[in-house]
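Hi again,

Forgot to attach this to my earlier email, sorry! This is the prediction with iron/sulfur cluster bound. I've pasted everything inline since the attachment limit keeps bouncing my files.
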Amino acid sequence: MCAVELLPSNPLEGKSPFELRLNQAPAASESVVKNALESGELGFLHSFTTGSTVDGPGVRVVGWTAGCQCRCLYCHNPDTWNMMNGMPVPLDRAIEEIRKYQHGLKIMSGGFTLSGGEPLMQDRFAVRLFTAVKAMGVHTALDTNGFLGERLSDRELEQIDLVLLDLKSWDPERHRQLTGKDIGPTLDFARRLAERKRPVWLRFVLVPGWTDEEETVGAIAKFAAGLGNIERVDVLPFHQMGRFKWKELALEYQLESLEPPCRGAVERACNQFRAEGLNAL
Ligand code: SF4
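Structure tokens for the complex follow:
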């Protein structure tokens, strides 16, 4: 039985992941959080959104988890870094929320995507939710930075139909500067997914001056092509839609005045992936 309840002022369904949501779990004690993480009985979620067409195939329901171990300089959801900014949602409640849409999702060849934040910060909740959703016959997708991929067993990976894997840079030092974390675990997870022949869409954020050098894009494209399981590459132009959140949270935002890349730069990056035989959009 969960010791915390959903706060009535925060509906489970959000207008969009860009909604700023803070301190949604003030009543959750340390032991509640610890038990939640160990058992997966309770998840900490920013919100659910419906109707997404960019987080996997078809039309999707997306669960946005709270908690992330990275500190990406371009993060557009820094309010999801802290797990306590998420709503405590019992696993059963989350399953019921998705069940409401199961028929529609199947008709629209869509499914359910768990994104964040970083969903694998709550790996037990993620696995249990995916298992329940897959049992409904609904397609499942995990949007992850891959850093905690080793938390999933090979068997648990089978509950995830598609991994949306964010690869943020190639150069280890640049990756550390950009995200605060090492690149190694993400690359290891990418290789493991390839060995297990799990379908992957690679996501790459094009950040002017940080990730848009020809050598960087070329190296990532080569690596991705060599894996053999990358069904598609999404080149995502850096944007400023989350700038207001950095301000609200009084965080120092180093990319405050950085302009998004021009269309030509995005197309050039896509072409580098295509040149390696990948389907880049
Ligand atoms: S991994 Fe995603 S949620 Fe975490 S800091 Fe980076 S962009 Fe933000």
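The pocket of iron/sulfur cluster is lined by residues 68, 70-72, 75, 77, 80, 116-118, 145, 179 (CB under 6 Å). Residues 17 and 64 are 7 Å apart (CA to CA).

That should be everything now.

G.
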